[in-house]
Design a protein that fits this description.
single chain, mainly alpha, 2 domains, 9 helices, 70% helix, 0% strand
């Protein structure tokens, strides 16, 4: 049963990944990408790496919404027209949802019936009393610490690039001047005004 579940999840992952790069509609690509992440999460559960599976679902599937927002902002999609086309995307969304539900049921039945493959006989099994999350943390923050920091820098550069690409300069909107704020002194940042009783301050 483990082999059947593995081949089904692997075939769905490869097919959905191919559809991600071949689909002309960005909405369809996002739906296929969600399918890839769910299928990969199922493979991790079969291997006994439930923590990585949770990261795929929580982080990556959650970040797909942000990816979709960036696509909408950069393509300048008309929201009224997009809402009108909701019924057109509904069948594909229903098919993707049915595939994901089937994968979840298949993985749950496999793990409940035969257990995860990693718990049977693997040379890289963790020590007794060490959880999956703790074992990953020990390896990640010791042997691969510098690679982990480098990946964080890559994500930081990607985030800055996304902000720069979506930043628009509009007239009439006041912008923050960091250099002016840092160079401000008490003399330039504060004005002492003598107010007479019964009178206000006019700019």
């Amino acid at each position: 049963m483990q082999a059947v579940a593995f081949y089904i999840l692997a075939l769905v992952s490869v097919a959905a990944a191919f559809l991600v790069i071949t689909a002309k509609n960005p909405v369809h690509s996002v739906l296929y990408l969600i399918t890839v992440f769910f299928s990969a999460a199922g493979l991790f559960v079969l291997l006994g790496a439930e923590f990585l599976a949770m990261l795929l679902v929580v982080v990556y599937v959650g970040a797909v919404a942000v990816l979709f927002l960036f696509v909408v902002m950069m393509l300048d999609v008309d929201f009224a027209q997009f809402r009108e086309g909701f019924a057109r995307y509904l069948p594909l969304g229903g098919v993707v949802g049915a595939v994901l539900l089937t994968e979840i049921i298949l993985v749950a039945m496999t793990v409940a019936h035969t257990g995860a493959a990693a718990k049977n006989a693997l040379p890289m099994a963790s020590a007794p009393g060490v959880s999956n999350t703790e074992a990953i943390g020990q390896v990640l923050y010791t042997d691969y610490f510098y690679l982990f920091q480098a990946s964080g820098l890559v994500l930081l550069v990607a985030m800055i690039g996304a902000i720069v690409l979506t930043l628009r300069h509009r007239p009439g909107v006041r912008r923050q001047n960091i250099a002016k704020q840092v160079a401000r002194t008490p003399k330039t940042g504060m004005t002492i005004v003598q107010i007479k009783p019964g009178e206000g301050v006019s700019e």
